[in-house]
Each structure stands twice: as C-alpha cells, then as structure tokens.
Amino acid sequence: MIKNNSNENILVINSNDNIELELESDLLLYDNNKKEMFIKKEKKIKTINISIVFAILFFGEVARGIIIPTINYYSILVGGTATTLGMVISAFSAGRFLATIVLGYFSKFDTYKNIFNISMVLCIIGSLWYSFSYIDQGNPFIGQSSLVISRFVLGFGAGTLSTARSFLADITIPSERTTWIALSSALQFLGFAVSPIIGSLLSYIPPFSIDEVIKIDSITLPGWFLTFQNFILLLMIIFYFQNPTLNQLASNNNNMINSSSDLNLNKKNNKSGSNNNSDNEQDDFEIESSSLKSSGGDGDGGDGGGGGDSSTTQLLLNQQSSNNSKQQQQQQQNQSIYRILYNNKRIFINLIIFIILNFFIRAILGIYETLGSTFYSKLDTSINSSTNSGYFFGSMGFLGIVLLLVISWLCKKELLHDYWILCFGNLIITIGCFATMVHQLSWTRFVFGYICIWGIGFTLAQTVVVSMFSKILSNTIGNASQGTLIGIITASGSLGRVIGPLFSGLLYNENDLLPLFSFAFALSLIILFSSILMIPKDILKIKYLNHNDNNNNEYNEENYNLIK
Q1: Could you give the CA distance from residue 170 to residue 316 in angstroms, rounded to a whole number?
Q2: With contact defined as beta carbons under 8 Å apart, do 177 and 168 qualify?
Q3: This prediction's pTM
Q4: How many degrees, rounded to 5, is the angle at CA 174 between CA 173 and CA 176?
Q5: Do 536 and 402 fall into the same domain?
C-alpha cells in the first residue's frame, strides 16, 4: 500500500508484469518524442547559424570588390596617385591576412558569437571611415591615409575565414563537412564576382548631401552600403546566432542518436533503483531539459541531481572527453609535420613549389585588379564609365563561376587531371600577360588580356593549386596532418594579394605601361615553368587526385610509394 498526493491508499500489484511493460513502453515513447523535438530544434539552430556565417563570408568578399568601379575616382578625389591606389587595394588584403591569424587564434579561447560581433563592429567602423575619407581638412595626406586605414580596418573585420571554417568544422559531421566548406568557398567566389556589379548599380542612386558635409554619391555609396549591410548582419548575430554548445556539435548529435538505446537503458536502470513516483519523473524531465537546452556557448549541462540527470550528464561528459582526446591527437599529429618535412624531402620540395605558385598567381591578379578601373576609364570616355566598368569586371567573375562548374564536373567524371588544369590555367595567364605587354593598351588587348587573366586563367589555377597540394598530402602523410601545411599555402596566396597591388602602384606610369606589364609577364613565366618543370610527373600516376575523400584508404599505400 502506498499513498498518493491526496493521502489516499492505493493498492499496487508489483507482480503485474503487463503494467510494468506498459509503463516502460510509455516511458521510451516519451523519451523518444523529447529526443525528436530536441533534434529538430538543434537542426533549426544549426541552419540559422550556418546561414549567418555564409552571409558573413559572402559580404566579406563583397567588401573587397564593391569599390572596383569607383576606387580610382576616390583616390584622385583625395589627391592620390597610382601608388596610393595600390596601397588602398593592398590594405584590405593585409587586414584580412592579419585578421585570419589573430581571429583564428582567439577563436580557441573566445566564443564564435563574440568574435563575429567584434568583426562586424570593425566592418562598420571601416565602412563609415571610408565614407568620410574625403574630408581631409585641406591636407591631402589626411584623406589618403584615411582611405588606406579605412580599408585596412574593413579588411581586418572581414577576415573571418579561419573562424568561419572552424565553426563549420565544429557543427558538421565529417561526411558533410567537405560539402559545407566547399559551399562556403563557392559563396565567397560568388560574392567577389557580383560585387563590382553592386558597385555599378549603386551609381544609379541620385547624389545628395546632408548639411553640406555628408556627401552621398557614387564614390561614397559603397561605404554607406557596407555600413548598412554590416549593421544588419550585426543585429542578426546578436539576436539569432547561437554559440555551438556541446549538444549542438554535429558529432555529439550523431552519437546521441546512435546511443539512444543506451540512454534509455541507463534511465531504466536508474529508475529501477529509485522511487517510481511522479515527483521523480518530473525532476528527471526538468533536469534533463535544462542540460539539453543550455545555451550561451558554454556547453554546460545541469547540476547533478536525479537519475535522468546523471545519465545525461555522464553521456555529455563522455562525449566531451572523446572530443578532447581527438583534439589532443590532432595536435600531436600536427607537431610531427616538421619531422615529416625533415625526413621526406619530396614533401618539402612540393611545399616550396606550391607556395611559389599560389603566391605569384594571386600577385598577378592583384596587379591587374588594382589598375583595372584605371585602364577602363582611360579607354571608355563616356559619362557612364564607372558604371560600365563594374559590369565588365562582374562579367569576368561570372565567367569564372561557369568555369568552376565545368571543372567540378570534369574532375568528378575523371575526364581531366588536376595537373593539366593547373598547367592550362597558368598558360592562359601567361598569354594574357603577354597580350598586354605594350606601351599603351588598346580596347582589344585590354579585353583579351583581362578575359585570359581574370576570367579564365586565375579561375583555373587558383581552383586546383591548393586542393592539388592537399590531395598530394593525403596520399603521403594523411588528411589529419596537413592542416598546418595547407595554412602555409593559403597564407602565401594572401601575401601575394598584398604584394601585387603595391608593385602595381609603384611601377605604374600612365605614359608607358610596358615596365608594369613586363613585370607581370615575368611572374607568369615563373608560375608556368614551375608547374611544367618542377611539379613531379609522378603526380599523374596518382589516381586518387580526382577521387573523393571517401576513397582515401584504398590508394594511400600505393600512392605514398609513388611520391616517395
């Protein structure tokens, strides 16, 4: 005999197995329903978070290219020269390069939400600064410095690539991680492709001023657009973005789904050792819910208490311990890279080759990107020159997107080897640079050269240069140990995007373009002969280069011997 909450005596027949089975069945159904609701909520949060991160990456690239149609006019407005223009373009890349290191480092110690908030605030500051750089108080140096510094600050705020990819790696399972990261790269490329067109469309807004101080016209509108856009992103991060907790990590969600039977078994065992009254069941529900719904990025569960709480907390602790052990194993593997480079000279040589390739490929693009609007404005003397230039350079970006889709299809069908894509892309870049080697550009040479360099050659070469090196490493030292080396390759490309515009401004002479284009042609010859003569031909024997990552193990041993 036991008493209920109304102190009424109730007879309980402990030997009735049917009643116990019904209770257990109801409990399992109740727990499964809670799990299903929880998983749906987690998927919704994950979708919102990824959408916001993709928007950050997309508009980070828009911030780079939106000024292409008008930056030449802004530089002239503040009394700048071609050197100033080169510094302005270079400053954005320098800010992004530095931010990739700094923000990537602090992402290990701070929450993603705080880092993204800080980056958006810096983007707003840089955009507003850019919009007011024309106010130089009669001193051209102030205006020119403001223009350069504003782009550096904006570039630093937009340098969230490493943080964004770290976030994607945290909330996605390995089987879907490659897809999400590839999609993020495609969105970045799309952002840079459409950004000149956005800059051209802004020129249709009639110019006006506020109190004769705040001027809003085609030159300053890119800054105002970025200010408004980054402010909207900041609000989205503040109100909708949630830091991934331990429960929100995709690997943990997967483990929770797979181990649902174990969790139910633990609950049954815990409940068998406790009182079967409604109060205990309510406690278990409340404590478990508080641990599963914890937010704010700390990943804390609830306090120890009821039976359901102990099983859930223990599960989460086991998952966290598993993740920590994987991270420690990853760090140990990364630390052994230097020993691998010392022992395997071929890997070291490949690293140097691909650093040279990625650096000079992006340096050449930086040269032509910096002076593109300048060349276009000299050839197009119409009143809509700045607007037309945005459409022209935007079309180069869309041509690149089409080529990316073609390359992806060819590689999946194994119809074309990565090596030949790289060599052909470098050859097209060399042809484009050679076509522009004149004292003064004509329309024909300008259009042909930029299609070859910007629209075709750069797209082909930069698409495969990093992935090709990554696949080579996968067949030698494995996937888990290549993060540092890929980081070095990527950093070399970022430095090329910084150095190229600087040389472009220093070598530019409007009366004689031959020295500038001769320098670019020399760089193109370096990448062409490096890809043809220095990359080991054994790479052509590696079938895995055009296979997906799921088939690594089948080829690793054979391909290691080929490379070695």
Answers
A1: 16
A2: yes
A3: 0.72
A4: 75
A5: yes
